[in-house]
Design a protein that fits this description.
Blueprint (H helix, E strand, L loop, with lengths): L2 H9 L9 E4 L1 H8 L3 H14 L2 E4 L8 E5 L3 H14 L3 H10 L4 H12 L3 E7 L2 E10 L14 H10 L4 E4 L4 E4 L2 E6 L5 E6 L13 H13 L13 E8 L2 E6 L6 H4 L25 E6 L3 E6 L12 E6 L17 H4 L2 E7 L2 E7 L10 H10 L2 H8 L3 E4 L17 H11 L5 E7 L2 H15 L4 E7 L7 H4 L4 E7 L4 H10 L10 H15 L4 H17 L3 E3 L1 E10 L2 E2 L15 E2 L4
Parallel strand pairs: 5-14, 18-19, 18-20
Antiparallel strand pairs: 1-3, 2-3, 4-5, 6-7, 8-9, 9-11, 10-11, 12-13, 13-14, 15-22, 16-20, 16-21, 17-22, 23-24
Helix pairs in contact: 1-4, 2-3, 4-5, 4-6, 5-6, 11-13, 17-18
């Protein structure tokens, strides 16, 4: 603890918060600060040197000295926060601001001070100006391995570190060349040949060849490890290196959308002989990981990316799980009128839905269909949107926002009570896991209150995003309140939803899994996008009819960026594409 923190501890005492002058002895200060008299003497000297106090000592037993406070509690708190931020102890600064015995107003001001450390910074190093973007994150970056990732934010960041053979173009809804500059296929879609770009480098400087591609896919397919989206490679029978920059895939059955599979982050290419389970894999992406620890991760521009170096030099992502800082709000000085003009606001529609899913693998009253129907009857999503507002833009009846139709749905408390009586409910507590985000927790508390109205007991358990990787932990709950945010490639996103081993599948019983897999087989055979969506909605409807999934709301949020941050292109994950960002000087 530094001397300023000791000063704040003294100033925080109720009798001293508004005081300017007090009479106090060194021993009393030592007792308050829980330190020795010798240490108290040293602290007093430092306070005087730093200009925190004035001190007029009095000699003699029982005599008290005069201490004059030269900094208010607010001034000392601000100074301490600024010192912590300058030393890059941002997590400590947030803890200090949120856990201290400060007024709500002071806590808010301190957090605003911390947030000013985020956004764009120009750092001069060796006669060169570096553009650095600081972003606060609300949770740990748990999994930086593209083959195991299932969380949207992590997948978005991994797309900046790794490359795939092809990439999905959201504007024309087609797959385009990426690491492969072209490809061709036979008539029955069973033999695909891809032509690899020359001159592509991994972050360690080695060159990409077709052997790296072959090794990546063969390792994923053959190694006896559980990969969440291994299904993407089920149809691959053989991977053939034709030459240094040509590779072919022989499929068991024809698959016209195979390139869509190869656009997923889970098919990122890594160097031959990499440890596929490692969290420090080398990619070829526009950014490389320079450093990562419990506090933050630093991305550094990769100078030799085959599509050109990113405009930003570094991106610092800070892990601040307990903060109220918006990870996408890089402009925060909203109280300063002159700076209100210097910002750009983007509305980001969540391409997905929030929902409750019951754990059909666990015994309990929730296994009763009448009970689940009673829950569904009490959750009026239209009312949720009206009463809670905020980012909730529309009631949901399915995963896809433009396919939701809530117009003919009515809810009845009386009917819910009847259904609950038929279920045989005897007052059991339902344990509901909820993602630890303000909006989700607010939804959960609202639903808890509604269910209490018919005598249903619910206990809400906040969980971290990373908890979804722990299957045993997740299966301990009766139900989970979560959300699905689809990426730009809607067809691939839907297939991933149905097959991802860490998604809805872990909560379904064997019979439901069989139905889901049959639906998947039917969906993937559809000749066009509309037929594809209709088949998916048929699968979705079965989960709704059984009450296994109860949809709540579609969300939308506004995120504000500094006006000199240019090139903002929002991905399907709701984040700006980092390698496209650039800074307009003098803005």
């Amino acid at each position: 603890m530094d001397v300023l923190e000791y000063y704040i501890d003294l100033k925080c005492l109720p009798e001293y918060q508004q005081a300017y002058e007090i009479r106090i002895s060194k021993q009393e200060i030592a007792d308050i600060l829980f330190c020795s008299s010798r240490n108290a003497h040293y602290i007093l000297q430092k306070w005087v040197q730093e200009g925190y106090i004035g001190w007029q000592g009095q000699r003699g037993r029982g005599k008290k000295s005069k201490l004059t406070f030269l900094k208010s509690l607010d001034e000392a708190a601000f100074l301490h926060v600024e010192n912590l931020v300058q030393r890059e102890k941002v997590k400590e600064a947030v803890s200090f601001a949120t856990e201290g015995h400060f007024s709500a107003r002071l806590k808010e001001l301190l957090l605003n001070t911390i947030q000013r450390a985020f956004g764009i910074q120009h750092i001069e190093q060796q006669e060169e100006m570096n553009d650095v973007l600081h972003i606060p994150l609300q949770h740990n970056l748990y999994n930086m391995n593209p083959f195991f990732v299932t969380i949207a934010v992590e997948a978005h960041i991994l797309n900046e570190i790794f490359d795939t053979l092809v990439r999905y173009n959201v504007d024309n809804k087609t797959v385009e060349p990426h690491l492969a500059h072209g490809w061709e296929v036979n008539e029955d879609y069973t033999f695909w040949t891809f032509y690899i770009r020359k001159g592509v480098r991994f972050h360690d400087g080695s060159s990409l060849t077709s052997k790296d591609v072959q090794w990546t896919f063969q390792t994923i397919i053959n190694e006896e490890i559980k990969i969440p989206n291994k299904w993407l490679f089920e149809g691959v029978q053989e991977i053939i290196v034709q030459d240094k920059y040509t590779i072919s895939f022989h499929l068991k059955n024809g698959n016209r959308v195979f390139p869509y599979f190869l656009s997923a982050v889970f098919t990122s290419i890594v160097p031959e002989e990499s440890d596929i389970k490692s969290s420090s894999l080398k990619g070829t992406g526009p950014f490389k990981i320079e450093d990562v620890n419990d506090e933050k991760m630093i991305l550094k521009a990769f100078d030799y990316h085959f599509r050109g170096r990113p405009f930003l030099d570094r991106i610092h992502m800070w892990n601040l799980p307990e903060s109220k800082l918006d990870p996408l709000n890089f402009f925060t000085h909203e109280n300063l009128e002159k700076e209100k003009k210097n910002r750009s606001t983007y509305t980001i529609d969540d391409n997905g839905s929030n929902y409750i899913i019951f754990n059909m693998k666990k015994t309990g009253i929730h296994q009763n269909s009448f009970f689940r129907q009673a829950v569904s009857e009490m959750i009026d999503s239209r009312q949720m949107v009206q009463e809670l507002g905020g980012p909730r833009v529309a009631p949901s009846t399915g995963f896809i926002p433009d396919r939701s139709d809530y117009s003919n749905i009515r809810h009845s408390t009386q009917k819910a009570k009847q259904l609950l009586n038929r279920s045989g409910y005897k007052g059991e507590t339902i344990h509901l896991a909820v993602l630890r985000f303000d909006d989700f927790l607010e939804d959960a508390r609202w639903m808890e209150q509604k269910l209490n109205e018919i005598g249903m007991k619910v206990k809400v358990h906040p969980i971290e995003l990373s908890d979804i990787y722990n299957e045993d932990f997740m299966l301990a709950f009766d139900a989970v309140y979560t959300g699905e945010s689809f990426e730009d490639n809607m067809e691939l996103a839907i297939l991933i939803l149905l097959r991802n081993e860490y998604g809805i599948r872990i909560f379904l019983n064997p019979s439901q899994l069989s139905e889901l897999d049959n639906g998947f087989k039917s969906i993937i055979k559809q000749p066009d996008y509309e037929s594809f969506l209709q088949e998916f909605q048929a699968v979705e409807e079965k989960l709704k009819e059984s009450g296994t999934i109860i949809f709540t709301v579609h969300a939308s949020e506004q995120n504000t960026f500094q006006s000199n941050l240019q090139g903002i292109q929002i991905s399907g994950y709701g984040w700006p594409v980092l390698h496209k960002l650039w800074i307009k000087k003098g803005c």
